[in-house]
Amino acid sequence: MTTLPATVFEKIIAGQLPADIVYKDDRVTAFRDIHPRAPTHILIVPNKVIATTDDIADGDEALIGHLVTVARDLARQEGIAKNGYRLIINCREHGGQEVYHLHIHLLGGRPLGPMVTDSPAGA
């Protein structure tokens, strides 16, 4: 049986890599993205490794809800809740997922524009 190498998020959670951690508890770690796409760009990550949204088990329901409530609380803490913010979860290659450890992007601090830009089918 082979084990996969730890993701960068696992290493951040374990304290093996530096990160600007803004929240941590026994279930979730949240830290600032090193390549922010908005003035506020925080990643909220379950401490339990779940590769993609497709890998969420029925028993993870409370954990996933906790991720969202932590995101809400961080949006309030960052002062972006009143004007609005975006939560994004990417899933696999076509969804734009780069790290295969489930995470929510919390983005805000400026108008974010459309979710997806139009492009010709198949482009």
Walkthrough of the structure:
The structure is a single chain. This protein has 123 residues and is an alpha+beta fold. It has one domain: HIT family, subunit A (2-Layer Sandwich). The chain contains three helices and five strands. The chain starts with 7 loop residues before the first helix and ends in a 15-residue tail after the last strand.
Sequence-ordered SSE layout with sheet pairings:
Layout: H1 8-13, E1 21-24, E2 28-32, E3 40-46, H2 61-77, E4 85-88, H3 92-95, E5 104-108
Précis, in short:
This protein is an alpha+beta fold and 123 residues long. The chain has helices spanning 8-13, 61-77, 92-95; strands spanning 21-24, 28-32, 40-46, 85-88, 104-108.
CATH superfamily: HIT-like
The total strand number stands at: 5
**Helix percentage:** 10-25%
The overall pLDDT average reads 92
CATH topology: HIT family, subunit A
Structural category: alpha+beta
How many helices in DSSP terms? 3
Question: How large a portion of the residues is in β-strands, by DSSP E?
Answer: 15-25%
Q: CATH class, please?
A: Alpha Beta
Radius of gyration: 15 Å
Distance between the termini: 40 Å
Largest sheet: 5 strands, antiparallel
What's the helix-strand series?
HEEEHEHE
Low-confidence stretches: none
Number of domains: 1
**Outline type:** globular
Write a concise keyword list for the protein shown above.
single chain; 123 residues; alpha+beta; HIT family, subunit A; 5-stranded antiparallel β-sheet; 3 helices; 20% strand; globular
